[in-house]
Amino acid sequence: MKKFLALILAGIMLVTLLSCSQPQEEVFDMDFSGEEVKAGFDGLELKVLSSFYSGNNNTDSENILGYPIGTGLSDLASERIKEVEAKYDCSVNLEYKNWSDFTGSFAGGIAGGKSPCDFCFVTSFDIYSWAKAGYLAGIKNELGDIIDYTDSDKWGAPNLLECVFYKDDLYGLLPAAWPDLIYSSFGYPLVANMDLIAASGGDDPRELYEQGVWNWATFNEQLEKCTVIEGSETTVYGLTSHSPYFAEMILGSNGIALARIDGKVSLKCGFYEPEFLAAAEEVRHVIYGPLAYTFDKISESDPNVVVDKFCAEEACYSFFPTKFVFGVWGSVAQAIDNYAVLRTPVGPDVDPDHVMGIFDGMTYTIAFPTSVINHNAEAAAYVANEIFEPLPGYETFEDVKTYMAHNNFFDKRDAEAFLDVLANCAYNHFYSAGGAVRNISANVGRTETPASELLETHENEVNDFFANAVGDMLQAYKVLFPEIEIVE
Q: Using an 8 Å Cβ cutoff, are 358 and 425 in contact?
């Protein structure tokens, strides 16, 4: 019996040894979906190029992904980079270039077959031309297994991403979960110097909005009240503005934009809708008509001069790109002790709660050189996807909203107005279709040519825009966000 048991045990041991000696299936131990990564990119060095266009007289300051060094947010961004480097066993090398030096070298490098970086963090103005030339990786088609571009809280709402659309893909992302960045990229909310308004005899515009009377007629009354004339000299104007900004916002406040009709994406030009003529008349009424004395024409052609004059307290109201208000280039926040950010007063052809904003590009955009020459594109996508997760303390939109209300505004109502304008922004295609796309809206404020004549003069131009650049970009909605209604 003992001999029999010994034979059985020997057999079991033999089977065990044989099973252990069989080849095992190889398991790739880098699990990107889990909390920890056992092995990463084996010390891979990833280069990130940053370059931003300020648009005013302020110069770039050294920063960590858009945050000035020495601030709490730059510290959080720096710490996030370190965490990602440790998690993925890689190094993220940030390099900064002035905007004037960046664009040509970036495109030239890719055209020459050499990737200048693994991803870039830049102003979006050239994204369309780079995508058209094949320089960038399509987020959906090349990197869609890594990055979920439909996560609007993280990567930006469709209306803001429109500036990086081209045909059947998008070629950039927005750091939407991080405070300040996309919030300082759009235009052109109405900004008011509240102390100067009170001193000049105007009324509180926040209260006028709450009373439901914040419309063109009320605004015109306020411009008159806020204009101060001493002898033959105007010491305070009701309004100073770059006239294209003013015109676009007044058009928007009556439901009209280049590729929007009543807030909906449109494959036909919104300027040819009846509401355009009423808005054009309002712009002319202020700049050339009975209210011309309330408008500072001296500064209207140069946005930099407008900013300087507003900051010198020479006008009570102005329309600005938000980057002029606060953030790295925020002249207004640095100069004005008590300012308000407001919705544009509404026109007669929209609901009283209608709101619209305009943007010509996003100051902070993430893009990847095409994987054809950038062999680290997928690794860069994993790393960027992790870096731009919400920062500690700012995990939700409400956290970001609370931060902005506390740090960037004097009144909670301003934060609500500001975010309302952002949520309803429309892209004006200025940097994709070309400057001529703005001929109608800009000339509404710059000339006294009848609005109907402007429409007729530029009709062939507009048709060309929509047949080419504008049409190429808007068609992407049907692939990327098919649930969004488009006016055909």
A: yes
